[in-house]
Amino acid sequence: MVVLLSRLAVTDCLKLCHRVVDGLCGREPPCRGDYSSTWSLEEWLELLNSLTALFRLAVGNNSSDEEVLARLSAVGSSSHAEAVLSVLRARREEIRRALLHRTSSISSATLQDFDWQLKLALSSDKIASLHTPLLSLSLDVRENGALRTVTVEMNREELNTLISSLEAANKVVLQLK
Fold first, then answer.
1. Alpha-carbon distance 103 to 14, whole Å?
2. Is the pTM of the predicted complex or chain greater than 0.70?
3. How far apart are CA 121 and CA 130, in angstroms?
4. DSSP classification of residue 107
5. Which residue in 40, 60, 86, 109 is a FRET match for 117, CA 20 to 30 A apart?
6. Dihedrals φ, ψ of 124, to 5°?
7. Are 16 and 8 in contact (CB under 8 A)?
8. How confident is the model at residue 109 (pLDDT cuts 50, 70, 90)?
């Protein structure tokens, strides 16, 4: 809970927030030992998680200063809330780059090109008369500089599932913009 910040002086609050952002951006996070006399372990973890979530949400949702201050209203002290907000303002772009890097590093593979063919399976070795449409989808994927082709063959139900998944993913991407 961010209300725990009120136990610190405003200057120490600024330092802590900068260290939390450092940890969020892949550098050294704040050390619990520096604050062990101020908060218990449980309070420390709760504060660290709350501040990290606040910075992530504020940058990820592109929240205005008023929205951030509204989330920080529980702190009680407006000087502490302003300190957190000043760190957010100063390091917003750095946090955004760190969040983008974390998201893009999930997979290094990128789609370069695709091709598709529609086939009609008339029969198989088990059934004399099949008449099933099949989609053959070839994806050219670049991963770590190497180009490889991934080919998938789908029936109508599998294709519908793929289309639904892609539409859901597109909806999420549009919400992130």
1. 27
2. no
3. 6
4. -
5. 109
6. -135, 180
7. yes
8. confident
